[in-house]
Amino acid sequence: MNRRNFLALAPGVAAWCVAPGAAYAAASPAVDAVDSVGIGCAFFVRLASPVEAKAVRVSWLGETFSPVLRPEAAGYGTWVALAADLTTKPGRKALDVAFELPGGTRAVRRDVTVVTRKYPEQHLTVAKKMVHPAPKALERHKLEREAVQRVLARRSGERFWETPFVRPVPGGVSSDFGLRRVFNGEPRAPHRGVDLRGAAGSAINAFAAGEVALVADHYFSGNVVYIDHGQGMISMYCHMSAFGVREGQFVSAGQEIGKVGSTGRVTGPHLHFGLSVMGHMVDPMPLFEGAGVPNTQG
Ligand SMILES: [Zn+2]
Predict the structure, then answer these.
(1) Which keywords fit this entry according to its UniProt record (predicted)?
(2) CA 168 to centroid of ligand 1, rounded, Å
């Protein structure tokens, strides 16, 4: 195509490329996301629509869920948390959001690049029983894992969590998220939570508001509490010495949910704290440091 022809076509091209008019823009939903996320990390996405949406569908890494937009000063909006776990293959991924509006469905795509992140490795020598549990213990563990998977699969449209998130105990980190332990020379699955120091009997506080989804005594994790914070965010607290909540109860952010202990297969009292975001186990520590964590309360 020579320049003359291009100019002749220009009016038609312009019809595709011009900035939308005011009325059109007013009906445009918006999706604000990060450009990249490390493996083992959560990230936050802002959804907004000037008009009420009948439904919103968010698709990320092969899963779709439907968050509820809330009425705001101007239009409707919410924050959603998404994540890439340690097994996510690095590379550019599509974040797709479909807004079902009165005038039809509006699809918005954002590219988010998943990047690798370094995690530590630790070599340990432990009792054989812990490396190779008895068959009966494995059978029990299998049933417990299934119960946990059912909890981690919960996807409410409503969001109960707000920032800032609450650090469940004030103690420092004794074992990092993502740490790859090698027991007696055998590599194990990476640490999918963070171990926080705490004296036996000290209070554990809820990471955020939510519904208590599971209270149980598990073989490896001991006394556990799982809290569903909505939209696929679930926190877990392990090795507790005492429970302060029951299943089905709704807790507020920072509410005491039990006490630090050493139940399950551990050597001393601490809190193993885990966070699942849409089924992806993530490092909770960056969420307490504030970087990249939005203020969801305006
Ligand atoms: Zn742990």
Answers:
(1) Hydrolase, Signal
(2) 14
- Distance, CA 83 to ligand 1 centroid (Å)? 20
- What is the reported pLDDT for 8? 39
**Which ipTM value was assigned to this complex?**
0.99
* CB-CB contact of 200 with 262 (8 Å): yes
Which segments of 18-69 does DSSP mark as H helices, in order? 22-26
| Domain edges within the chain | 14-115, 121-289
Q: Which residues, including other chains, have CB under 8 Å from residue 22's CB and lie 6 or more apart?
A: none
Distance 273 CA to ligand 1 centre (A): 7
- Predicted confidence (pLDDT) per residue in 243-283, tens digit: 999 999 999 999 999 999 999 999 899 999 999 999 999 99
How many Å lie between the centroid of ligand 1 and the Cα of residue 191?
Answer: 6
- For residue 196, the CA-to-ligand 1 centroid distance in Å is 8
Distance 199 CA to ligand 1 centre (A): 15
Determine the Cα–Cα distance for residues 58 and 38; give it in Å rounded to an integer.
20
CATH number of 121-289: 2.70.70.10
